[in-house]
Amino acid sequence: MVTFALSLFDTIGLNQDDKGENALVVTPSEHMMVPSYPGLPYEGATITFDRDTALSREDMNFISWEHPMIQGGIDLVMSEGVGTCAVSLLKNKALPVGTILLELVYVVDAQAPKKSGISRFLPPTPIRMMMDGRGNDLSAQVEFEGFNRQLSPVNRHLASKLVTSVQADVHRLIEAGNGAVEEKLTVVREEAHKAMYASLNGELERLQASRRLTQIFVMKRLMPLNLKSLS
Hints:
Layout: H1 2-12, E1 15-20, E2 23-27, E3 45-48, H2 51-56, E4 60-62, H3 68-80, E5 88-90, E6 102-108, E7 125-131, H4 144-149, E8 151-153, H5 156-165, H6 167-230
Parallel strand pairs: 3-4
Antiparallel strand pairs: 1-2, 2-3, 5-8, 6-7
Helix pairs in contact: 1-3
Organism: Vibrio maritimus
InterPro entries: RapA_C
Domain RNA polymerase recycling bacterial C-terminal: 2-209
């Protein structure tokens, strides 16, 4: 989460000032790719990735996958088409020279009007895939933080050459990823469906209970009148 967020802020062009004690001050810069950043005030914000720190400091924003600065940043990058592809070198003696690993990040989003409220149950949700040269998904075995620490950046010229040389493999692995992600997509959908059903069913039960109470109240009001009319 931390590495992803900091990389996202770098891509957008936000200033980041480490204040220690799990605190980071994020402010807009003159070199941002957009005039304003979602969820970030003009004067900036103090953020933390530690929940306990956020609970002890009212002036801090706790950054999670659901925070507007993350969700808005993902939407921004996806819509602008910037920063959606990166090339790095992986130095790992356990892997043969020339090994290709393709990391894919899909974003599950509900295509519905905001007033529908579906985003409460299915906010933009990233799904990470790590494809090896054979089309196997290694994301469960290769976690993001540990993998990212082993990567070394390459210059634009070398990156272009590398991409050209493995272009056919990349397209093949993207197709494999598109097929493999369906299972994870189904899980996300089912979880959202369960959450929506539980919420709406609870609301329905509340309304039904409220209706019964109203009916009981009306019956109590009418009972004396009915008894009087029978006497």
